Structures are given as C-alpha cells and as structure tokens.
User: Fold Muconate cycloisomerase 1 from Psychrobacter piechaudii.
Amino acid sequence: MNIKSINTLLVPVPTIRAHKLSCTVMNEQVLVLVHIETNDGLEGWGEATTIGGLSYAEESPHSIKTNIDAYFTPLLLQEQPSNVAEAMKLLNKNIHGNRFAKSAVETALLDIQGKRLGLPISELLGGRVRDRVEVAWTLASGDTETDIAEAKRVINERKHRIFKLKIGSNSVDQDVAHVLEIKKALGEYRVIVDINQAWTELQCLDGISRLQEGGVALIEQPISQRNKAGLKRLTDRFNVAIMADEIVQDPQNAFWLAAEHCADVFAVKINQAGGLTNACLIGKIAALAGVDLYGGTMLEGPIGTIASAHAFSTFPTLAYDTELFGPLLLTDTILKQPLEYKDFGLVIPNKPGLGIEVDKEKVYLLAKESKI
Ligand code: MUC
Ligand code: MG
Assistant:
C-alpha cells in the first residue's frame, strides 16, 4: 500500500442540542480522524467515534488516538502490508481489541484502495445493491413535547420518517408514557426505542408488553449486554422485534448470537464490528441465520457515516433501515460538500473510495485549536 504517514486528529464538534441517552448526555461529539498518505501521492480518511467518552464502550477518543499513534502506526509503517486484508490481518494478530481504532484505520486504507482502483468502497466490499439508505432520526431531547415538534419538523423537511427514542434514564412508567404519547402524535410513522441496557429482565416484561401494545416497531438492547440468555428469552417471548446492539461486538460473537437466535434483528456498526469488512461479515452471518438487519451508528461524523453507508449498501436486505443521521446532529461539517440527505434518506456517492472530499485545512486547524 506504500504507506508514507498516518496522522490522527481529535476534532470536537458541538451538537445541535443536548442528546440524552440512558448512559450519558452529549453536548459535543469528538471525531477521531485518521489521515493516511502514501508515497505515490494518494490519501485516505477514516473516523472513529465513541459516545460520551467511556460511558458507552471500552474505547475513548483519547485511547483510540494514543493506541493508533503508539501501536498501529509503527507496525503498519514497518511491515508495509500489500493490501487492506493483509493490513487488517497484521493488526488483528498483533493488537487485541481496539475495534473502534481498527475500524478508523481500515476505512482510511479502503479509501486509498478505492481511489487507486477507481472504485467506490461499496464495490471493494462485494458491490452495492442500493444507492441510498433510509435514515431514522433519534429523538433524545429528554422532553416529550420538544421531541414531537422535532419529529414533525423533520417529516415536513422530508428528512426522516422513522423515529428512534432513547429511553431508560427515567422510571419504566415515565418512559413508556413518553413513548406512547409520541407514537400517538406521529400516527403511522415508525417508532422504535433504544433502552441502552437500562432495564432489568423483569422491568422488560411489563415495559415491552406496553410498548408492543402501543405499536412500537422495534425494541433495542433493553437489558445488559452481559445477559445473552435474557435477550433470547425476551426474543422468544414477545412478538415485537427485539434488536441486539451493544452485545453485537465482532463476527465471532455475532455468529453465536445468530446461531442461538438471541435477537430478531442485529444493529450493525462499523466501529463496534472492528471495521467495514467485519460489519459485512456480521451482515452475512445474520442473513444466513434469518436475523434481520439494521444499520447502526456510533453517532459518527460524515466520514464514519458514509463509510457505514458503503458497508450497508452491500446488505441484500436491510429490513429495519438505518440511523445514519450522525452528521445532522453536529453544528459543523468537515467536508467541502456536505453529505446528501434527501427524501428521507442518505445518498451513497459513486465516486472512488469514500466519495467525499475532506476539508483538510479545516480539520487540521480544528484539531490544533482544540483543548482536549
Ligand atoms: C446506540 O446505542 O444505538 C445511536 C443513536 C443514538 O442516539 O445513539 C446511538 C447509539
Ligand atoms: Mg443502541
């Protein structure tokens, strides 16, 4: 691949409003950008994000940057793998875990490879079956009326018509009442909930029954990611679809979750999977086992979002669509041309690599000025 340099940048970007999850409240997102240049004049970009520092998963923006700088970069510069598959094999052999960091590096390498071959990343991953993905919007202001007004606004703007509600930080009664009021106000529009592991199995029996009754279409990761047997019991018990998110961590663990049908749907995320190739593998495993798919987000900025879209474009079916709205939650963009959101979806570029142009001067300046 002829790698000349690998730079990592921490770029904090404020969110358009507070974003409340059961595990944290976000007022900014820190983009970890990976910029790789080759000796023959190509460059590629990758991105990793976490949610609320270390509140969501075991990697933080700082750990991703430090580990890429201290371990990934010397290894890649010294070994000079000849293609992306060899690079990922090398990283997986020498570096345990660090799936978010691996995803950012693989994205940048695929961007370079796509540019070299004149192909979009989707085609390096086996080929796209769609040029756009439908994109859900997440309502997480913490206030029911604000959420309803926000939903109606984005419907009118033809941006989104699927809504995910982040719940789990209030009592089950309060959360259920909040969801059902929003569902009633939005009528036939699809409403799904993400509990981010906050409920016990017993709370689920009551909470999910009432959400199912109220017409909620999908229940995401209601209980702890450590309770695989409990997730299966809920999946077996309820008709409403149960989705696995935090528990889906890499292709091998996805294999066992799929084989035992622990969930009806998998949320696939490139960061959580350890890269785009792994995300596609998880998609294939799920499809083979009859598990439906949902294109998840780690609230990435535009680079991670469009990388995810390239991967999801290759899934033969994407029954529950995607939530690739991350860039729309941010107050600023780092691209020369923002991603194209229209008609309730995101358009996947057909140009080589990621098919986007990063504003290089801007991101280096933002990283330099940032105090984190
Ligand atoms: C998650 O758990 O799915 C996705 C949307 C959002 O608001 O948070 C993420 C993480
Ligand atoms: Mg989730």
Notes: The domain at 124-347 is CATH 3.20.20.120 (TIM Barrel). The two ends are 32 Å apart (CA to CA).
